[in-house]
Structure formats: structure tokens, C-alpha cells
Amino acid sequence: MPVEPSTSTVWLPTDPLAEQQAHHGLQPAREHCDIVWSQAAQARSKTNSDDDGDDDSSSSHKEHNGGGGGSGIGSGSGMHRLASAFKSLGSSMRSHSHAALELFRLSSHISSDLTDTQLYPELDHDATVSTSAALAPEEEAFRAARRRFILSTRALHKFLELDEADEVDAADVPEVCLGGSGGGYRACLGFLAMMAVAQKAGLWDLVWYVAGVSGSCWSIASVYTFAHLGAGDILENLGRGSGHHPLSAAAVNAVATTASGVYLQLAPLVIKLQRGHVHPGPLDLYGTLTTTHLLASPGVRRVVAAEQDRTTGRGEGEQGGELKKEWFKFTRCITSMRLDEGRNPLPILTAVRHERTWKDWSSPHSQHPHTDPKDARTWWQWFTFTPYDFGCDSLPFYIPTWSFGRHFSRNVSTERLPELSLSLILGLCTSAPAAPLSAYLGTLYRNLPTGAFGRHLREWADSWSARHKADKERLENHHPVHAQNEPNPLFEAIARTEEEERRWRGLNGAPRLHMVDAGMANNEPHTVFFRPGRKVDVVLLGDYSSDVQKDAAVERIGDGLVDRRLGVRPRPATSLPPPPSALLTESKAAQEMQRKFGSKYAQVLDTFHLPPPATRHEADALRERNVPPAPADVEPAIVYLPLLPHAVQPDYDPSTADFSSSYNLVWTQHQVETLRITAEANVWQALPTIRSVIREAYQRKKAARLARLNSG
Hints:
The chain is an alpha+beta fold. The chain has 24 helices and 16 strands. It is globular and about 65 Å long.
């Protein structure tokens, strides 16, 4: 007999049967539901959601119309409001965590996960800490498989248009890496467009590693989650579902009202809260909500899409499937993307840790004097996630990726937990709000206007910094929003040598590890391609930063390689004609666009080894940071690929258009398509240069092999 719904309780269903019952006004059986939500809690949530939605709509409106006196989300005040919102959300979560657990009764589902060895086989295994920077055996096996795949598919022949009679030796295959910068959704969509062109042109089959910073990590996660979809398909999917802010009520409800939606939004936070010693914060919630929104298929977006369908008549709202738990396991792509067979590049997600030698990590409240000026230095340590391992090559240490999030003591995990949700990893990798103020100030400094006004501002800033060094240091190292915290694998680690003890100073006494968006260190991920054991020959770097037209590229790329003891030298620019396209026009604006940017879509930089440090101070700093230098035989060519305006759409500038601001997460389908057209045109025009640089690397490796044979 049907059960009338309670007037005080809302049941959120988790499978199609329960959803159908709820649709007809029936209360589904409890086993078909994720949570029980009290009516009072629902009302409170609705009020909060409505407030958030109003703020979001207001900010979006100001941004898209360029009004609001500079108060749009991309402005300084918008960033201030964003930071304040995160801090308020964090305080609310800490003070009401117990109430949240009472409201969201997810324990039965979580308990099931804690024993599901079929979905989480890692529950049967303990993890140990490797204190070597050497590649994991699984990555070594991937590298061998990738080389075999490139040879067996004749991918090099196809892309370089080699003669079919040419024999390519295994030693001749160049190691090509693809990197994407930060830049919010602009970077996410732009890097997806680059990957889409790479897949169409046959370049993807030559790439060994694909790495991202910040927004480009979303691109990688999308491609490696939907194993059956290409980057172009994902762009279409995002175009249908990006019309609402990921944190808005409409977007959250679109996921929450589907099977497992609420579970995937909240269970990672509850599991983290139950672990103890680490606490979920606002950036964890940001991670779960943005990731579920991003990875949701069109079917999950039916609430949003249905609203669009009523106004557009497209009738696309009910297409697609649902979110699945296994999509949120990063290690799953080993089999789903057939990495073990070498059929796709190895994905790398990045984050950084702010190393402050003067800070006493084991006791943050104690006074730790730093009378020695050298002890006041700060720098960023790069951490990487691959499907195989997580760690840092400058400390160094690595653990299996499936064990990240577990507590460790004395180099061994002390508990067995399921792999940490990909949503929490992405929340960490895209956590720009947790950056120190120095990152925001640096961005503002680089984007100051040219001319007398900009020059006076720079002179004033430089003068103030010189006169207030102590205040400058405190200001730059202040973090407005707390970074995510996860258990520290080096906690109570056993140092085997004095050198390890020195490198781990303070860190092995800290139970928690704090990391933030890698864009705070460098907006390009190229440094991670130089981990010992990787022998990169060509690096392709997509840049979706807001300052791509301000000639900051060489400095940014060079900064990322100094610790690897490499310098960069730009080659003379050559202008290439745009590829034939039905979208090209003969307008004066299009011709001017080609004249201005024709030589900049693919800028080649050669690398070279730097001489030894010239001063003792520089040598000590390098030793302190302990970043492994590039091997003597590794001097790759870098092809810099900035996202620039293009003649296919001469009126669109990705760097200045209101809707493609780094901080805008609300895109219409038309806007997604606008960026896609320009981004793909950029890459197609750059393709001849990319092909030429890869051919150079192939010929150089072939010549070196033949020289070795002749000399032997």
C-alpha cells in the first residue's frame, strides 16, 4: 500500500525505482535512499542556497555586462568576496559538523564502502613510503608499453608523414609531453580543445605524459573519467551543462536528486570527518560540488537541462546516464584507459606545498626565531598525482595513489581505507583561494597597465617593498583561506641519513600535509616532466593565463626550470599562414589578427644546461630546495602554445572577454563553442611547427643511435 510522504521529512532517492516512486508522491523504501533530510533543515538549506544563488546571479550579471563598478567576480573585490565566503563556510562547517552528520545519515553507504573489496581492492593492502625519487615499477612498465604502442600503430609514421619503408627503431621514438596551464574554466575548455585537436590530428598517440595546473586538471579528469568519450565529446557535454554555477542551488540539486548524487557530494566529507586528525573544510566541499557538476553526464543535469529545454525546445534533458562511484577513483583509468597497455598518455595532476623554513610545523603556536636570514626563505614544493603514485621528487617520497588520505606512521600506513575520492584531489589541485597573498599580488603586478600610470604603480610598489621588507614578508605569506589538509605520509618517518633528516626538517613531525593549487608556484606544469627516469624530448605547453599577451611566457617557463638547472632560449619567430577554414573571413579585422598573432601561436624555445651556481648563497639555496636536476642528455625543445585571438573570430579575445574571465564558472553553450572555435584554430595553426619540432627530435635521436652503432 502506498505510504504518504511525511510532512517533516524529505527522502532523497538513489535509484530509478525510488525516483519514480517519489515522482508520483510516494515515499520510497529506505534502502533506496541516500539520506533523510528534516523539513527544518531543508528550509534552512533552501534559504542558504537561495542566498548563494542570488549572489551568484548578481556576480554573473555584473561580469557579463561589464558593470558594477569593477565589482564583478573577476575583480579584486570579487576575489575578496570569494575568499570571505570560503572562510565563512569553513567556520560554519566546523561549528555545525555534528549537526550535519545528524542531517545526512550516510553511514550505511559508507560502511558498505569500507568493506567493498571488489570496488576498492586496496582495502586488502597496507602501503609503505618510498623515499626515492625513482619511478614506480608500474610507471616503468607503462613507459615500455607506450613505446611498443607507438611502434606497433606506426603513430610516428602517420603524424610525421614518414615514408612507409622507413623503419623506426625503439630508441628513435621521441618522448613528447603535453601540459596545460591554470586559468579556471577558460583553461579547462581551452586544454580540452587542444586535446581534441591532438586526438584528431594523430598527435595524441605520440604523447607520453599529459599534465595540468589548476583548471587544466579538470580537463584531464574529464578525459580520464569518461573513458569512452574524446575531448571533443566532453566539450559538447560541458556546453550543455555549464549554464549554472557549480555551487548554485540549481547545479547542486541537479546532481543531488539523482542516483548516488548526494552520496558523491557528501560522503567524501563524512569519511574525512570520521578519520580524525584531519577535518573537511570549505575547499573540500568546493571540490566535491565542482567535480560532481563537471563530471556529470547530460542525464545528471536533467534539472538544469530541462529548464533549458523549456526555453529552447532542444529536448536534450533526459539523455545520458548517471554518475558512478568508480568514476571517482583516479586509479581506475589504469584499466579503463588501458594505460597498462600504453594506449593513452599517463595523466599527472599537480599541487604545491608552501615550504617556510622558519615555521615550526610540529607546533604552529610556538615561536620559532629565524635569526639566520637564510632560514627565512620560502619556496614551493611540487607534488604530483599519477594513477600509480603520489609524492614529491624534491623531498623525496612517494606512496601508492590509492593510499593517499590514509594516516602513516614510521613509513607504513596505519589504516585501510578506500581510495580518496577524485573530487577531493581535484578540490586540492584547483584550490586557488587557499593561495598566499603573494600569488594574488603577483598576478595584479603582472597585469598592471602599460604607460605612465602603470609605471608609477610599479615604482610605488617596488619602493614600498624595499622600505617594508618585514611587512612585505608577512603579507605575502598570509593565506586568506586555509588550505586543504590531508594526513602526512612522512609523519614520524624514519630518516635513514642525515640528509633525509635535514630535508624533512619539521615535516616528519607534522600529522597533516597542506597543499594548494600549483598555479601559485608556476602556471605551467613543465617541471614535473623532469622527474628522474623520464627522458622528455619535446614539451608542448598550452597557456590559458590571463597575461598571455604581456610577454611573460619566457620568464614563466624559465622560472619553472631553474631548479632543474635548465635555461631557455627562444628561437626566431616565423609566421605561418592559418589553415584553410570555412570560418575564416577576408575582413580587415581578420587580416589584422593574422598580422599581429600569426607568429605567436607556436613559439619554440630551446633548453640548455645552466652553469654551476656562481655564488655560495645560490648553491646553498639549490641544495636546500633539493630539486633533482635534468640529466646531462635531456635538453628538450619547448613549443609554447598560448591561447590568443584568431582570425576565425576576430572580435573575440579570450583574455579580455567578460565571460572567459579566470574566475567565471558560468558559461552558456554559445560561449563554450566560441572559446572552442578559437582555441582549436590556435592549435591547428600551430600544428606544422609542432610537427617540425617532433621531427627534429626524431631525427636527432636516430642520428645519435646510428653514431653509437658506428663508433661501436
